[in-house]
Design a protein that fits this description.
mainly alpha
């Protein structure tokens, strides 16, 4: 009975280790997918972790800047709609137009006026 009792904890420990290995394999697979999605390091090639970390940090900074710009453009929407209405009084106001379309319409009208 004593030998069986000593064997049982080993089985539990093996199961714990197997679970940990499964988690580690999942983390490694995820890391590989992430590194593959990032452009290669010019110096070290694919799989360069320092380059990947730097790339992700830059991407986060660009996303923050992009979010700021989107916020500014959304705040400019009423102004753009107002100017569109002034320039095109015959068109009904359309608040659902993308900002890029509003800007393009205003730019086109301004360039026509300059000519």
């Amino acid at each position: 009975m004593d030998a069986i009792d000593r064997w049982q904890p080993d089985v539990r420990r093996i199961k714990e280790l197997e679970a940990q290995i499964e988690v580690l394999n999942t983390l490694l697979d995820t890391r590989e997918k992430l590194v593959e999605a990032i452009p290669e390091c010019k110096e070290h090639g694919a799989g360069c972790v320092p380059h990947a970390i730097e790339w992700v940090e830059k991407a986060k900074e660009l996303e923050a800047e992009s979010a700021n710009l989107r916020g500014l453009l959304e705040r400019a929407r009423p102004y753009l709609l107002y100017h569109r209405a002034l320039m095109f009084p015959d068109k009904s106001p359309d608040d659902s137009l993308p900002i890029s379309s509003l800007i393009a319409a205003i730019e086109a009208a301004l360039s026509e006026q300059e000519e």
